[in-house]
Specification:
The protein is of the alpha+beta class. It is built from 17 helices and eight strands. The strands form two sheets. It has a five-stranded mixed beta sheet, with no helix packed on it. It has a three-stranded antiparallel beta sheet with strand order 1-3-6, with no helix packed on it. A hairpin with a 5-residue loop joins β4 and β5.
């Protein structure tokens, strides 16, 4: 079984963390600190609860003056990065610390009333551990001021700060508070994305695409207008807008499908659709197969997807679209396709036994639905 994510706050982490705290705070009481961290509820706390708990305990062991506490945190970061311990710190795929996100949490929790000190610290800390969650309370409390700062950050020399300028203002950033004002009116975000749409960093460009995808869920026309404006500027920008339109494509938005050359096509048919597992046990997989026939005399670009209708607790069905492929199929061709869809138990979805359905979608057009049953 994979290690639980919450266990990244382990003995190795606390050994390195307490050494850094000792270095920056000569009177640091390590035994007391660890005893307060490992309280009677520690084992029952989940990841975010553990992070918030560590942050709350940390506050007791830092200077009461917020500005001095931040100075200590910045000193701690420099120390950690100068030691061999930094090599073993758990990191994201692009090299930022995961565990030390507790430091950005400290700013979000205790620095909201000290804007200047906090914003300056965020700019430095985000180059060590991502601060997209930390800036969101500031965007809510200081919307105009903070978005002007985000725009300045979009031209920063460091890729992590530029990424923060986009990632931090995503209207629907997962696992973080939403930004209602930007969900309603994303206009302040657009100049930031304009600066970053062709950024030299792939990580930054991916954030721009994710921001577009967030905006599209509430303001599709805003994204469609940007797509029309940006399309063809560069290979990078074309990737950004395509990835940023993934929700609109899955929704079968006709205007977006046409923009990307995925118009409703004629003479494309599905034959011999079969559900190979009409009864699927929880933990196993749905398997189905079919033939895709391109009856045209020319090769045809096709976005091929399937819709999975999950049983909900109230007995209704909820649709989720999964992509199979998007490519050109040869003229007068027959392509045999087999797919599996896992029903392995995961934390982000609760499965309910009973009727489920699956359908094939061609360039946004959904075909017949077929029933199967999920069983214990």
């Amino acid at each position: 079984m994979a290690e639980l994510f919450k266990n990244m706050f382990n003995a190795k982490f606390f050994d390195g963390f307490t050494k850094a705290l000792k270095y920056t705070n000569s009177d640091f009481d390590e035994p007391l600190f660890l005893s307060e961290i490992m309280d009677k509820d520690w084992e029952n706390k989940e990841l975010l609860q553990r992070a918030m708990h560590i942050t709350a305990v940390l506050k007791k062991f830092l200077p009461a003056d917020y500005k001095i506490a931040i100075e200590k945190i910045l000193e701690l970061i420099k120390y950690v990065k100068s030691t061999q311990y930094w090599v073993s710190v758990e990191k994201t795929q692009f090299g930022l610390s995961l565990e030390y996100g507790i430091l950005s949490g400290f700013i979000a929790e205790y620095g909201l009333d000290d804007y200047d000190v906090s914003v300056k610290a965020i700019e430095e800390i985000t180059q060590f551990t991502s601060c997209e969650g930390a800036v969101r309370p500031f965007i809510i409390k200081y919307p105009d001021k903070m978005m002007r700062q985000m725009l300045l950050w979009s031209k920063h020399d460091h890729w992590a700060v530029r990424r923060l300028s986009s990632e931090g203002c995503r209207p629907r950033l997962p696992w973080n508070m939403a930004l209602p004002n930007l969900k309603e009116n994303p206009a302040p975000i657009i100049p930031i994305l304009e600066n970053l749409k062709n950024d030299t960093s792939e990580i930054v460009r991916k954030s721009v695409a994710n921001n577009l995808n967030d905006i599209a869920k509430d303001n599709p026309e805003t994204v469609i207008d940007l797509v029309k404006k940006w399309q063809g500027e560069s290979k990078n920008t074309d990737w950004v807008i395509k990835h940023g339109c993934r929700t609109l494509l899955k929704q079968g938005n006709a205007e977006v499908l046409e923009i990307f050359g995925l118009n409703i096509v004629k003479n494309i048919t599905i034959e011999d659709f079969q559900i190979l597992t009409p009864k699927v046990k929880i933990g196993k997989s749905l398997e189905f197969c079919f033939k895709l026939l391109n009856n045209n005399n020319t090769k045809t670009k096709i976005r091929l997807e399937y819709g999975l209708y999950y049983q909900k607790a109230n007995g209704t069905l909820s649709k989720k679209v999964h992509k199979i492929s998007e490519k050109e199929y040869a003229e007068n061709s027959i392509t045999e396709i087999t797919r599996k869809q896992s029903f392995r138990v995961i934390t982000t979805r609760v499965f309910h036994i009973g009727l489920h359905q699956v359908s094939i979608i061609i360039n946004g057009k959904e075909l017949d639905k077929y029933d199967f049953e999920l069983i214990e």
